[in-house]
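Quick log. Single chain, no ligands specified.
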Amino acid sequence: GISETVVRNSRRLLIDVPVLNGFCMFIKREVIDAVGLMDDVAFPFGFGEENDFAMRTKRMGYELKVFEGDYIWHHKSKSYGDKTRRSLSSKSKKTMKLRWGTQLVAAVKNLEANIHLKETRRRVDRAVHLSKCPQNTLRVLFVLNPTRKVTQPTLAMHGGWISIFNQAWGLRQRDVCSMVAISAWTRAAFETNFPQLKSIEFLLTYPDEVRNPVALATALYPHVPVFDFLVATLFTTVESIGYLKTCYPQVQTGYFIQDYEADFDNIDEEQRRRAYESYEHVPGMVLFAKTEWLQMKVIKNHNVRVHKVLPSLDLSAFQRALALSQEEKDMAADLVVMSDTEVSEINPDAINVVAMVRPSTPRRNPKATLQVLVEIKERFRSNVTLHTFGCSEDELDEFLTKAEPDLQPLLLDRAIKIKHHGTLARDKVAVLFARSDIFLDMSFWQAFGRTGLEAMAAGCVRVLPVGSGSEEYSHHGFNSMLHNTTNYKDAVKQITFLLNNQSALEEMRGNALRTSKQYDFSSASLRLLTLFCSSLTTTSSVLRVPRPCDLL
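-> predicted structure:
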């Protein structure tokens, strides 16, 4: 109701005013001793006695304040009725005018013009009209970093975005009003990859011109009172939420740590400093990560508490693609050739190896990825078919042009050695994985490695970096092969083993499929919901325990 809306929008301020007009007042005994009681002689039936008392109090040097963080409902005219109220009010106005004259006129004028009270009314009115959430429901906003607009036909869905979306969507399935804030131009890409979004209010878009933490905080400012939790997803969004927390101290804050960004090699030293400080930037912020590797890395480097949550995964698209692929293998030897950005030319008679190549992210190790693929092709020739995805054709060609001499021949005969599928939507990635046998990841580290787990769900055996977050679910020789990504020859060795040992490949494929089935929406969303509910404090914006926290 209105009470909850007022509390959500409160800045917990005591606002100085020149006169008080109300029915619920807290008065110190000291003031009554100095000023006396309300004048029941001049105002025997009320209507003006509190105004007169306030003016006398002010004259004695005491302060008058309005607390804008509570709402008390007053049933107007219930004591006397409208007709009597108007008559008594008219008499009291004459008394007040005789007693206070122009002082009262000035005080009322200043009260009506008070900018702080106007701001409070504006916040409440805006929140009433903006809220898409049912009353007394836990409300969570995940904030994505602004994304620079690009002209490529398909916006690649980064693993971090998918993780954030899945966590928010999992909470939705538990009756939490969760939303994700994104750059407006990316909405179409999210709705393409997640068709269920089109029928609900789930995405909160901010202008594409927003490019920095201050601008993001400004864009989100009108929407904040609607939510109990603001969740950062990158160090820059931590800064934005920090600004918003100063304006709305009652809102709880969280940081869904996707990776250890201070180690990124594509940021400058100033950004590195900000990333390093982000884990302690907002006092009281609830930090959580989805792998023990990432949790312990932040704890070790910053001595802060980091909660471990479960990864929220929707692997149904990859499981469906695997089932469809198995049916197709029984019906045809070759797949229908599609457009350049679609999955095509997969040879069911050869071992298909697939890898993500993303030159814009150096820690994904694009050079070593291609070196491994070239050497595997030279060793196994027609017995292996190689596939890449993750960037546009132009971006890959530009990367190869600048690469070392050993990769430049790919510019001339790449179509013979490697089939590049460009930037793929998630459903096309699922098809590609389902029609492949081995997924190569040459990243220097993985905080989690969502793409690898998706590959497992589609029946791929993964070749992954050792010593990182992907070891949460990857076990060398059981469902994956782990390798040292600083030496690409090690990855060649692991893939060679799989290509020469078909029985081991099939056994690991079965183990990978069984491992992937251990991950589900339900368990992950319950773990995160429990964390949010337990983090709500007496200073939170909720008046009551919100649904579904009251059911835990």
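The radius of gyration is 31 Å.
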